[in-house]
Amino acid sequence: MSVLIYIELENGSIKKTSLEAIAYGAKVAEKTGVKATVLAIGKAEMTELGKSGRYGASKVLHAADDKLVHENSMAYADVLVQAVQQEETKIVILSKSGLGDAMAARAAARLNAAVVSGVTQLPETGDVFKVTRSIFTGKAFATTQINSEIKILVIKKNVIEIDENAVATENAEIVPFAPTFREDDFRAAVVNVEKADTELSLTEADIIVSGGRGMKGPENWQLLLDFAKALGAATGCSKPVSDLDWRPHHEHIGQTGIKVAPNLYIACGISGAIQHLAGVNGSKCIVVINKDPEAPFFKAADYGIVGDIFEILPRLTEAAKKLR
Amino acid sequence: MLAYYLRFSVTCVDKVILRKVKIHNYIIMKILVCITNVPDTTAKIAFTDNDTKLNKNGIQYIIGPYDDYALARGVEIKEQTGGTLTVLHVGGAEADPQIRKALAIGADDAIRVNAEPLDSYFTAHQIAHIAKQNDYDLILMGRESIDYNSGVVHGLVGEMLGIPSYSPVMKLDFEGNNATITREIDGGKEILKASLPLVLGCQEPIAEWKIPNMRGIMTARTKPLNVVEPVAAEEMTTPEKYTLPAPKGACRMIPASEAETLIRLLQTEAKVI
Question: How much is the pTM?
Answer without folding.
Answer: 0.87
